[in-house]
C-alpha cells in the first residue's frame, strides 16, 4: 500500500535522524533497533483495527428504530439524541490544528529543533500508539452513537456504516495525544521555564473543547470522551517519559492475536528490566 510505504519512509528518516541527534544532549534516548520495530508494529495494529472497523455493518433500520434512550446508562443518558452538524464541523478545526502543535514546537524552539528527527520519531510513535488503541476499540466494540437515538434524523444518518463507532472518542484521543505530547516535550526540554503551567493548561483545554463539541454533535457519549481524553493524554505523556534518559528501563511493544473465543485483540505490553 502506498500509505504504508510512505509511513516506512518517514519512520526511517526520522529515526535515523534521531540516532544522529544522540550526539548532543537530549532528555530522551531513542534506538533505531528498538523504536523502529515498535512503531512499525503499532502501525500494523492501526491497519488491523481499521480493517475491522471497515467491515462493520452499522445499524439496520429496525435496530435504529428500536433504540431507546432509557437503555443508556444514567451517566451518559443525557447525551442520547444529541445531534449538531455545526458542532461536528467546528470540532474539526481544533482537531486538525492540534496535529501542528509538536511540529511548530520543533520549528520554533531552538533546543527542540536540534533534535527534530528524534522528536519527530517520538511523535509518530505517540500518535501510532493512540491510533492503535482507538482503531482496535472501534473495530471490536459496537456502541451506537448518541445521534442514532434521535428520532428526528433521517434513518440514513442513524444507520450509517460508522453508526456503532461511539466507543471511544477518536477525535478527543488524537487531539489530547498531540497537545499533551507537545507539552511534555516542552516540559522536559525546559524544566525551569515559567511558561510550563500555561503550556500544560493549553494542552488540556484544546482536547476538552474537542470532546465537548463531539458530545454536542452526537458523535460520542461523555464516557467515550473521557476515555478518549485519558488514552490520548496518557500516550502523549507516557511515550516520551518511557524514553527519558534518566528514567527506568521500561520498554513498550505492541501485541495482537486471537483469544480463546476467536476474537482479535490488540494492545501494548509494558515491561521493566529488573
From TrEMBL:
<feature type="signal peptide">
    <location>
        <begin position="1"/>
        <end position="21"/>
    </location>
</feature>
<feature type="domain" description="Phosphatidic acid phosphatase type 2/haloperoxidase">
    <location>
        <begin position="123"/>
        <end position="244"/>
    </location>
</feature>
<protein>
    <submittedName>
        <fullName>Opacity protein-like surface antigen</fullName>
    </submittedName>
</protein>
<dbReference type="InterPro" id="IPR000326">
    <property type="entry name" value="PAP2/HPO"/>
</dbReference>
<dbReference type="Pfam" id="PF01569">
    <property type="entry name" value="PAP2"/>
</dbReference>
<dbReference type="InterPro" id="IPR036938">
    <property type="entry name" value="PAP2/HPO_sf"/>
</dbReference>
<keyword id="KW-0732">Signal</keyword>
Amino acid at each position: 500500500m502506498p500509505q504504508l510505504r510512505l509511513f516506512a519512509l518517514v519512520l526511517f528518516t526520522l529515526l535515523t535522524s534521531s540516532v544522529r541527534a544522540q550526539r548532543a544532549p537530549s532528555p530522551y534516548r531513542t534506538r533505531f533497533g528498538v523504536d523502529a520495530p515498535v512503531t512499525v508494529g503499532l502501525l500494523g495494529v492501526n491497519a488491523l483495527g481499521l480493517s475491522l472497523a471497515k467491515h462493520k455493518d452499522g445499524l439496520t433500520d429496525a435496530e435504529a428504530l428500536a433504540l431507546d434512550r432509557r437503555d443508556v446508562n444514567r451517566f451518559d443518558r443525557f447525551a442520547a439524541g444529541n445531534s449538531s452538524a455545526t458542532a461536528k464541523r467546528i470540532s474539526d478545526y481544533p482537531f486538525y490544528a492540534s496535529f501542528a502543535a509538536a511540529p511548530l514546537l520543533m520549528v520554533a524552539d531552538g533546543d527542540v529543533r536540534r533534535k527534530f528527527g528524534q522528536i519527530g520519531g517520538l511523535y509518530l510513535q505517540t500518535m501510532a500508539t493512540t491510533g492503535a488503541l482507538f482503531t482496535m476499540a472501534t473495530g471490536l466494540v459496537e456502541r451506537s452513537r448518541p445521534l442514532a437515538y434521535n428520532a428526528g434524523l433521517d434513518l440514513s444518518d442513524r444507520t450509517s456504516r460508522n453508526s456503532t463507532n461511539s466507543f471511544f472518542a477518536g477525535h478527543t484521543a488524537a487531539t489530547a495525544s498531540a497537545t499533551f505530547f507537545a507539552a511534555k516535550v516542552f516540559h522536559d526540554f525546559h524544566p525551569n521555564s515559567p511558561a510550563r503551567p500555561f503550556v500544560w493548561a493549553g494542552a488540556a483545554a484544546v482536547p476538552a473543547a474537542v470532546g465537548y463539541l463531539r458530545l454536542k454533535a452526537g458523535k460520542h457519549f461523555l464516557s467515550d470522551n473521557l476515555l478518549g481524553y485519558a488514552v490520548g493524554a496518557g500516550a502523549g505523556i507516557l511515550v516520551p517519559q518511557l524514553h527519558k534518559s534518566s528514567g527506568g528501563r521500561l520498554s513498550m511493544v505492541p501485541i495482537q492475536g486471537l483469544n480463546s473465543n476467536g476474537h482479535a485483540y490488540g494492545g501494548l505490553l509494558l515491561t521493566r528490566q529488573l
